[in-house]
Amino acid sequence: MRRNPFHASLIALIVLVAPLAAQAFETRAKQAIILDYATGAELYAKNADELMHPASMTKMMTIYMLFDALKSGAVSLEDTLPISERAWRKQGSKMFVEVGKRVKVEDLVRGIVVQSGNDASIVVAEGLAGSEEAFAEQMTKKARELGMSNTTIRNASGWPDPEHISTARDLAILAAATIRDFPEYYPYYAERSFTFNNIKQGNRNPLLYRNMGADGLKTGHTEEAGYGLTASAKRGERRLVLVAHGMESVRERSQETQRLLDWAFREFNTYPLFKAGDAVAEAKVWLGEEDRVPLVIDKDVVAVMKRSARKSMKVVAQFDEPVAAPITQGAKIGTLKITAPDMPPIEHPLFAAKDVGPLGMFGRLRAAVSYLVWDSGS
After folding, report:
1. Rounded Cα distance, 176 and 275, in Å
2. pLDDT tens readout for residues 134-157
3. Which residues are catalytic?
């Protein structure tokens, strides 16, 4: 399994996933990835680390930086930012801000998230960093901090630039970080329309208009890069993050992203197996004050796999017994081994749950006599 800096809980979590998704489903997208939000497990990947131009999906990072400033108190939703001529003149998708005026930060959030405004993105960049160039450098630095190792950002809107690059995996990391780090602001991504300057525009995310649990994030399109979408959907307690890019039309983007998410929700499930500290087995103790010691695992264990593979999964505790006393709490005693079809075996150490001291001299003598009487002739 490939692990990503996707979710903070991965530090104390063992995630198991069968790595056959890429061979099991075909998509017209040139680059795609589906990740389980709670665990970071990769359910599907197609050219997920291939460099590409993210287009307006770049605005997720612009908004991440703005959300970060809001959370830190550097700005508030009620603050206003000035509109420069550069922002006003920017072409492409627009919020339709007016040069020389000031716009509330909350309106700018919606102008970027809902209306995909290139002009609004520049307003935010200039307002937070003084210039779009300085803001792009800050965004690239933040991308590295988030684990987006293949992303370089040259502007705030995703305007075509040969050096402005990312990958499907990096965009998935960014989407997950947005959901995780800013739960109070993430609902802006679910808004379906926004009116500014008497101009009403609808959210370009096609999945928001379908009854499938989608609640964000961002579309992207350029002639060179094609059509892309970074999206998240939640059904019950499960949330998935999808990035699909390089499609040929708005219709294809809508159809392919829905197909991918429906397939992943249908085919995969999450199976909690153990909590950190759970006793997995007991080992016999030789010449100890107690005759058995519980064996525990130190991390949560969650299996993310195809539903069809669940019934064939095997969980085995492997250790040699009896274990000679004295035993120190936390000492490695054995191994937990988990196997399932089409999944490489996963092994994790098992530890003694408590100290077990040795028997005294007379106790050892009685144990030796008992062994000679009852076991030596067997």
Report:
1. 23
2. 999 999 999 999 999 999 999 999
3. 56, 59, 116
